[in-house]
């Protein structure tokens, strides 16, 4: 029995296949998921990784053994699974390890209506149940097993997204999309079909071994091909999706990356035009520009912790219309409060195609400050290093400290956030300032303490 503490993370189950888990364990997770969600039926899908179909079918067998009917939607992006969960009003499970290397796989799970399952809202219970069964035998099967049927929801998913953003009247755009051999290669052609977009497809072949580059656009080396193609072809915009295509990264017509905070601000302004006075969620690492733009457009910004389950919970509590994170996760009330990079991409395309200028001019109004990007430091004592940084700044004149998520220190001219990783011996630093020189000074000062 593998150590489940190594594969059960903040909002999903993830491990190395087959070293940490296999189909027999996936079957137990299916049964536990059915038991914890107390559902009569569930929906499941999977990405293109070689291990995904077998793990998904085992999970379905486990749920069906307890009398639960299972709808398999087959190959899908994670936001396509969220669509199915919302559209069918069923708990859902997606087999993917997102942007992680090929040897990994995992499950992202949600309740009916794409509501999150987090550590305190079902995941710990699922883990405990699986551990108990693994040590003492499988659960007692139901008198009558549930059914397992197949259903294709790709066209319905695409139609729903296009109903939320009208691109029919935009000027024609040349768009380069790097799917990274991930699920964007499955969803993009159907979503873009019939729109005034000339699609230049990079690495659309579904291949969970990732032969071209890792499907993790957050790492700059993985968008080099996209940047080169945009510059080479004179495209208007480049889009890069991660492995399960729930996140979308943007480069402008010069091939320069566009900050996810700028995308959050842009989309927020568009959503507020549709829903005046609405609330917009942003995590504590997004740029100062996000709450500024929200207020300028008559909305109410709400700051929250980093992470899927926290954002979704706050959106449900506040009735927020939209939420964005520095990691390029974008959440929409019109999409069951779930995250969908594809819908964010459609908003950007609509904004770009609705005016004559280049994307760089459009986003300049939302990209107002100098940022360090996320910098990771490996440390032996996360808590001790965090305390050392706190001690260095808590008496700093003009500095305000808060610990909503890690440590955030804010002054009139700069801020930084330092957070421990939940899964690795790392501290993650993000710095923003009114100019690049100040951002570099603050970055170096904090790192000198962290790495002392």
From TrEMBL:
**UniProt-recorded name of the protein:** Phosphomannomutase
The UniProt record lists the EC number as: 5.4.2.8
Secreted among keywords: no
The record places domain Alpha-D-phosphohexomutase C-terminal at 374-447
Q: Which coenzymes or cofactors are required? A: Mg(2+)
Family to which this protein belongs: Belongs to the phosphohexose mutase family.
According to the entry, what is the taxonomic lineage of the organism?
A: Bacteria, Bacillati, Actinomycetota, Actinomycetes, Kitasatosporales
Entry annotated with the keyword Isomerase: yes
Keywords attached to this entry:
Isomerase, Magnesium, Metal-binding, Phosphoprotein
> Which class of enzymes does this protein belong to?
isomerase
Q: Which Pfam families match?
A: PGM_PMM_I, PGM_PMM_II, PGM_PMM_III, PGM_PMM_IV
Q: What is a single molecular function from GO for this protein?
A: phosphomannomutase activity
The residue ranges of the Alpha-D-phosphohexomutase alpha/beta/alpha domain are 6-131, 155-255, 262-369
Which SUPFAM superfamilies does the protein's record reference?
Phosphoglucomutase, C-terminal domain, Phosphoglucomutase, first 3 domains
Sorted alphabetically, which InterPro entries does this protein's record hold?
A-D-PHexomutase_a/b/a-I, A-D-PHexomutase_a/b/a-I/II/III, A-D-PHexomutase_a/b/a-II, A-D-PHexomutase_a/b/a-III, A-D-PHexomutase_C, A-D-PHexomutase_C_sf, Alpha-D-phosphohexomutase_SF
Q: What CDD domains has UniProt attached to this entry?
A: PMM_PGM
């Amino acid at each position: 029995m593998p150590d489940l503490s190594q594969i059960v993370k903040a909002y999903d189950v993830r491990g190395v296949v087959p070293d940490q888990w296999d189909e027999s364990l996936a079957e137990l997770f299916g049964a536990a998921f059915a038991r914890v969600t107390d559902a009569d039926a569930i929906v499941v899908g999977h990405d293109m990784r070689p291990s995904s179909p077998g793990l998904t079918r085992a999970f379905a067998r486990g749920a069906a053994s307890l009398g639960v009917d299972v709808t398999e939607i087959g190959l899908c992006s994670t936001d396509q699974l969220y669509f199915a969960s919302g559209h069918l009003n069923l708990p859902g499970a997606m087999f993917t390890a997102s942007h992680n290397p090929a040897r990994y796989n995992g499950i992202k799970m949600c309740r009916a209506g794409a509501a999150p399952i987090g550590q305190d809202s079902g995941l710990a219970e699922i883990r405990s149940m699986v551990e108990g069964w693994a040590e003492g035998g499988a659960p007692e099967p139901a008198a009558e097993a549930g059914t397992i049927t197949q259903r294709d929801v790709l066209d319905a998913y695409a139609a729903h997204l296009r109903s939320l953003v009208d691109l029919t009247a935009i000027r024609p755009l040349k768009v380069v999309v790097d799917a990274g051999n991930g699920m964007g290669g499955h969803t993009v052609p159907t979503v873009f079909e019939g729109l005034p977009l000339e699609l230049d497809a990079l690495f659309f072949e579904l291949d969970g071994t990732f032969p071209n580059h890792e499907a993790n656009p957050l790492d700059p080396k993985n968008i080099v091909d996209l940047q080169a193609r945009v510059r080479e072809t004179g495209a208007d915009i480049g889009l890069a999706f991660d492995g399960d295509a729930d996140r979308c990264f943007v480069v402008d017509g010069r091939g320069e990356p566009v900050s996810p905070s700028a995308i959050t601000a842009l989309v927020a302004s568009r959503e507020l035009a549709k829903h005046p006075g609405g609330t917009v969620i942003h995590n504590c690492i997004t740029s100062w520009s996000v709450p500024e733009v929200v207020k300028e457009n008559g909305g109410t910004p709400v700051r929250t912790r980093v992470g899927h389950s926290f954002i979704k919970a706050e959106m449900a509590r506040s009735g927020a219309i939209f939420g964005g994170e520095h990691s390029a996760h974008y959440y929409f009330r019109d999409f069951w409060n779930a995250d969908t990079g594809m819908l964010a991409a459609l908003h950007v395309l609509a904004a770009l195609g609705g005016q004559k200028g280049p994307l760089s001019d459009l986003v300049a109004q939302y990209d107002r400050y100098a940022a360090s990007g996320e910098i990771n430091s490996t440390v032996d004592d996360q808590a001790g290093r965090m305390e050392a940084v706190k001690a260095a700044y808590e008496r700093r004149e003009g500095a305000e400290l808060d610990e909503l998520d890690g440590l955030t220190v804010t002054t009139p001219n700069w801020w930084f956030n330092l957070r421990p990783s939940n899964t690795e011996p790392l501290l993650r630093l993000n710095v923003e300032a009114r100019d690049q020189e100040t951002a570099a000074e603050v970055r170096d000062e904090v790192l000198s303490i962290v790495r002392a």
